[in-house]
Write a structure and sequence with these properties.
The chain is of the alpha/beta class. It has 2 domains: 211 residues, no CATH class; 102 residues, no CATH class. Helices cover 69% and strands 7% of the residues. It contains 11 helices and 5 strands; from the N terminus they run αααααβαβαβαβαβαα. The protein has a 5-stranded parallel sheet with strand order 3-2-1-4-5. The longest helix is centred in the first third of the chain and has 41 residues. It is elongated and about 75 Å long. It starts with a helix and ends with a helix.
């Protein structure tokens, strides 16, 4: 019977890997890819742990049995949290250091404290659940068993969140490090704040420089020189639009004005993509498009394009490290919200399986 369970687990793992790979091929920037990768990590960790425990039981002389397998699976939920605690603690320290820099330079807003709050929540939850389970392990009355089940369920929930967060980080890096194919007709550069004198901030300059670097390589490799679409309106404290500021920088960098389209009406990333695409389609309906934005912003920008039904590839420009962590937390929250029905269904299935294990063991 235990062999059958292992075979079923491997089949489920294979299906999860297949679903993730299919989603990645369809479009890299779907939030569903984060969810599928998180589930794949979750299943992989528990299957590996169960395999190690199973081999250990055999070496210690315990005969393979369904009871021992179910017991080990249940216990692995709490052990997962215990072994992940050092990772969560180190991450929380790094997040704290990062958030201090972010709060100093970007202001004390709740959004800039997201990483700190999440790291603290995971660490505290890990300690409470583990010690509470250790305290209740000798309790065999109904109330004690019910509380034990709820604690295991909470531990499962935290472990699942940790895996989804890991999936968010991995997908963020994959998107940021992706290099588009050298076949692009246009490169959109979404704007952000410019300086008071109309020059580019380091953040915006990095986006334009990344687009220039890609365009140069494509031209060298294929002879096809892409058109730049600078996108961004004029804020109340800006002397010119962000699009015009980027256009001037491109011209100063040696790009012919005929290869630049300035879109000066947008005030958000969504409008950057929509308005820029509208201008591109006026020239070429089936154009192949890329976009250049800050590395931590690539996945979100790509997802906005995907939800508009647009197919385009992104490239990431470098930025300060302290921006990354809170960006990951925002994407983590976004995937929880956008994929909430799928997450709830997955957790419900795990909760039912955990309940069945408790009934079998007790």
């Amino acid at each position: 019977m235990s062999g059958v369970l292992i075979a079923i687990a491997l089949i489920i793992l294979f299906l999860a890997a297949w679903r993730f790979n299919a989603g990645l091929k369809k479009n890299m920037y779907q939030y569903g890819n984060i969810r599928r990768l998180g589930i794949l990590i979750f299943l992989s960790v528990f299957l590996i742990w169960e395999g190690i425990t199973y081999i250990g039981d055999i070496q210690m002389g315990y005969p393979p049995s369904l009871f021992m397998m179910v017991f080990d699976i249940k216990e692995s939920v709490a052990l997962f949290m215990l072994y992940m605690f050092p990772v969560a603690l180190v991450t929380s320290v790094l997040v704290t250091i990062s958030n201090i820099s972010l709060l100093r330079k970007e202001g004390r807003t709740w959004k800039n404290m997201l990483g700190l709050l999440l790291g603290g929540f995971i660490c505290i939850s890990s300690l409470i659940v583990y010690f509470a389970l250790d305290y209740l392990k000798y309790s065999q009355d109904f109330t004690g068993l019910l509380i034990e089940y709820l604690l295991y369920l909470y531990a499962l929930f935290i472990a699942y969140l940790e895996c989804i967060l890991a999936g968010t980080v991995i997908m963020g890096f994959i998107a940021a490090k992706h290099n588009p194919r050298y076949d692009k007709d246009y490169i959109i550069v979404p704007g952000c704040q410019i300086r008071k004198d109309g020059s580019l901030t380091p953040l915006l300059k990095a986006r334009v420089d990344r687009a220039l670097e890609f365009a140069g390589r494509q031209t060298e490799k294929t002879g096809q020189a892409p058109v730049f679409v600078t996108s961004g309106g004029q804020g109340p404290d800006e002397i010119i639009s962000e699009a015009e500021a980027m256009k001037k920088y491109l011209i100063d960098s040696g790009i012919e004005e005929s290869r630049i389209i300035a879109e000066s009406k947008s005030v958000s990333t969504e409008e950057n993509i929509r308005f820029s695409t509208d201008l591109i389609k006026q020239e070429k309906e089936d154009a192949k498009i890329a976009f250049s934005t800050t590395n931590y912003h690539v996945f979100r920008t790509g997802n906005i394009a995907y939800e508009m039904g647009l197919s385009m590839e992104g490239m990431g420009a470098g930025t300060k490290a302290y921006f990354w962590i809170n960006a990951f937390i925002r994407e983590f929250i976004a995937t929880l919200v956008k994929e909430k029905k799928h997450h709830i269904l997955t957790l419900f299935i795990f909760a039912v399986l955990l309940f069945a294990m408790h009934l079998y063991l007790y």
